[in-house]
Design brief:
By secondary structure, the chain is mainly β. It has strands spanning 7-8, 28-29, 34-39, 51-56, 61-62, 64-66, 71-74, 80-87, 94-101, 103-104, 107-108, 111-116, 126-132, 143-145, 147-152, 160-164, 170-172, 177-180, 187-195, 202-209. It is built from no helices and 20 strands.
């Protein structure tokens, strides 16, 4: 799902179109020219943790950022013809040539490019894990549900253990549900998930906990 603010409004990136007018001061518009749908060989989105370089026919390059686990989008709203090189640890680089981005008024039409990455020789069966769903806990008892997303072969267990670094601020249960405790100071709690299959595979997120006026 695309959206958000990233690029100050400009007419057509490096190839302005006619009758666009002037950018509006302070208006932030994100208009990616390229949307890479990054999947592993098992069909799961792996955009987070993947990087790509987008090289224009003029030799200049753009970088990308992950919108979610599937979408890796360009950070520039340029039109033209591009070569895209996608890289991810434990995978072979994927290069896609002749990716065309056409103008649509002041901004480009988004060109969607499916990319299925292939594992490199000797890649481990469990490669990475990330936590999704962090948020601000604005009151005692407020909850956030953290979800693990694995880069692993389908036969690998996704079981994890959970831990918090400050149990006076929040607790976490076996399902990744974080619950804020009553605290008059507030603060930030770090929640970590650790793979049971390989304890070296971990992921953590920081959640803010709001202070309460008083606690029982």
């Amino acid at each position: 799902m695309l959206g958000g603010a990233a690029i100050v409004a400009s007419c057509g990136g490096d190839k302005p179109t006619a009758n666009c007018g002037q950018p509006v001061l302070g208006v932030i518009i994100f208009a990616p020219g390229i949307d890479l749908l990054v999947r592993d060989p098992f069909g799961r989105g792996q955009a987070i943790g993947t990087s790509a370089t987008i090289r224009g026919s003029d030799g200049t390059t753009d970088q990308t950022r992950a919108e979610d686990t599937l979408h890796l989008v360009s950070e520039a709203n340029r039109t033209g013809t591009f070569t895209v090189t996608v890289t991810r640890p434990y995978y072979r680089d994927a290069t896609i040539t002749n990716v065309k981005v056409t103008p649509n008024g002041c901004f480009p039409n988004t060109t969607t490019v499916p990319v299925t990455l292939q594992l490199a020789a000797g890649a481990p069966s469990l490669r990475a894990m990330i936590l999704l769903g962090q948020q601000f806990l604005d009151a005692p008892g407020a909850q956030a549900h953290l979800v693990t997303h694995f880069d692993a072969n389908p036969d690998v267990s996704t079981a994890v253990t959970w831990d918090v670094n400050s149990p006076t601020l929040a607790s976490v249960d076996a399902n990744g549900i974080v619950t804020a405790k009553c605290t008059t100071t507030g603060g930030t709690v770090t929640v970590m998930a650790t793979s049971l299959v390989d304890p070296s595979i971990t992921s953590s997120v920081n959640l803010g906990v709001a202070p309460a006026a008083s606690c029982p």
